Amino acid sequence: MDATHAHLLTNHIPILGSIFGIVLLIVGMLLMNKSVEITAISTILLASIFTIPVYLSGEEAEHKVEHLEGVSEFELEEHEEHAELSLWLMLIGGGFALMTIASYKVAPKLTKTARISTLIVTSAAFISLIPLANHGGQITHSELRDAEASSKGVIEKYDEVIIEEKNKKKTPI
What is the distance between the alpha carbons of residues 125 and 167, in angstroms, rounded to a whole number? Predict the structure, then answer.
């Protein structure tokens, strides 16, 4: 398995893990259930850890697909820009999650603040993952891109074919 394949297989883990962890943490806080909270925070921590290999494999995946036909250079660049922000937000969220887990044992008075901080930062990280995933999907899926951009690409390709055919007719054999 190469980095591109690894990236495509693992890129959903931070997205789904973070939203699942956020919802579970809210439920745990509402029910005042420590076990649910710790499960939620552990999920957030794991999702943030998985962000690292997703980010690193994305760099190699970019080099592999950037020259393929049908790949949107614009979407590739947008995806890359969002990836760095999302990586940092996820890592900060993971740091808060780790701090929250430790606070249950070491500093119970800080647990409430740590939980809320984890929830806020992880929510911001999840929000940053939405456009990241959107741009990632549009890199090779032209049907997901803006209708105007898609038709423009088709028109440009059609123009290239027409020009090629005209040039062939002009060139004597």
Answer: 52
What pLDDT digit, counting tens, does each position of 14-63 carry?
999 999 999 999 999 999 999 999 999 999 999 999 999 999 988 888 87
**Prediction pTM value:** 0.77
In a shared domain, residues 99 and 85: yes
Q: Is the domain of 154 the same as that of 125?
A: no
Contacts of 30 (CB under 8 A, 6+ apart): none
- Which H helix or E strand runs over 162? helix 147-170
Q: Quick check: 139 and 71 in contact, CB under 8 A? A: yes
Measured distance CA(111)–CA(15) in Å, rounded: 25
**CA angle 7-11-14, nearest 5°?**
145
Residues 78 and 152 in one domain: no
Q: How many domains does the chain have?
A: 2
Task: Retrieve residue 151's tokens.
Answer: 């038709």
Cα–Cα distance measured from residue 20 to residue 14, given in angstroms and rounded to the nearest whole number = 10
> Domain range holding 25?
3-140
